[in-house]
Known about the structure:
Blueprint: H1 7-14, E1 20-21, H2 24-33, E2 37-42, H3 54-65, E3 69-74, H4 96-113, E4 124-127, H5 129-132, H6 137-143, H7 150-153, H8 157-164, H9 171-174, H10 176-191, E5 195-199, H11 203-217, E6 222-226, E7 239-240, E8 243-244, H12 254-262, H13 269-276, H14 281-287, H15 293-311, H16 313-328, E9 338-341, E10 345-347, H17 348-354, H18 361-369, E11 373-375, E12 378-379, E13 386-388, E14 393-397, E15 401-407
Parallel strand pairs: 2-3, 2-5, 3-4, 5-6, 9-15
Antiparallel strand pairs: 1-6, 7-8, 10-13, 11-12, 11-14, 14-15
Helix pairs in contact: 10-11, 12-15, 12-16, 13-15, 15-16, 17-18
Catalytic activity: tRNA(Tyr) + L-tyrosine + ATP = L-tyrosyl-tRNA(Tyr) + AMP + diphosphate + H(+)
InterPro entries: aa-tRNA-synth_Ic, Rossmann-like_a/b/a_fold, S4_RNA-bd, S4_RNA-bd_sf, SYY-like_C, Tyr-tRNA-ligase, Tyr-tRNA-ligase_bac-type, Tyr-tRNA-ligase_bac_1
Pfam family, one: tRNA-synt_1b
Amino acid sequence: MSEFKSSLLRLLDERGYIHQATDSAGLDALASREVVTGYIGFDATAPSLHVGSLVQIMMLRRMQQAGHKPIVLMGGGTTKIGDPSGKDESRKLLSHEDIQANIASIRKVFEHFLTFGDGPTDAIMVDNDDWLGKLAYIDLLRTVGPHFTVNRMLTFDSVKLRLDREQPLTFLEFNYMILQAYDFRELALRHACRLQLGGSDQWGNIVNGVDLARRMDGTELFGVTTPLITTADGAKMGKTASGAVWLNADQLSAYDYWQFWRDTADGDVGKFLKLFTDLPLDQIAELDKRQGQELNEVKEILATEATALLHGRKAAEAAAKSAQEVFSEGGISASLPTYTVDGGSIGLVDALASLELCVSKGEARRLIRQGGARVNGEKILDEKYVIILTEPVRVSAGRKSHGVLLPRQ
């Protein structure tokens, strides 16, 4: 049992979200007596976040579940600079228009996890370009600059690791931590925000914001970071051989998202049920006891519950049914990606590429040579194999990626 008194920190603690806190006792006392407003920042470097950001999104969801107010801070301003944390090279600079388009696209994901509105615990989304874009450089240097020493800035992991690897760190990126600290202070002034949440790699940036508000305004702010979420084999959460696991439905289907969770390693199932589903903890404890074949059933529960949060219950159950049809019954599901073929035939290489089961025809040829391509469940080793279509045909890349070829009627 958690030793915290507030429902907020108890919930975060019992589900495994807390790694570090600037003043856990002070935050616990604050959350016990009033609604706490807290935020997490997300840079808009792509039209979608990926599953590596999901633990942060779930933290905001937990805040709201515990009766507190989450702020989604979109980095319309900081995306113009780029966060050096965990990066070996500078990010490509995006235009203002591209960044705003990305923010509009990303918002769709948050609407699945949070309730937005004007109520005391309703979530709001704000853009730090609203204030960072209006800063006068000299004024910023005079107002904020004296509170930062280069000596201390060089000790932060986001800077130190890049320099240790002898990778260049631009002066533009070096300013990122100052602007993130300024964000925290600005949100405290504008929205009475007292808490910043983030991943463990953001600890230095969060502490900077706590210190800056204390020095400039005498305001007491708090920070909490999550542990680095890794899989049982030590890999970073969300990194797969096939690329990023995107959260936007137009970049990754509900079926493929479900399959990502179904492929969870045995040792991660209990942890992921706590972090990424709303199932009660006592039910998770019971599920976590299952072994052998029963554990596969628990993975399907994890996949369905996690997918339901993002894509809705109906889509999640359809994905589960599709998987059962594909793997258990060898059938063809309407939820799988399809490609309609003109002329009654198509080469297997073209089929794999057209169904986007392979990113290129070269990759498709390699897959066939390595024995990873199947047509209606039959392994095909001939790169020149031609599929004749008189009815729908299932094409597979490996054991988990499938699509359906349809003859033109």
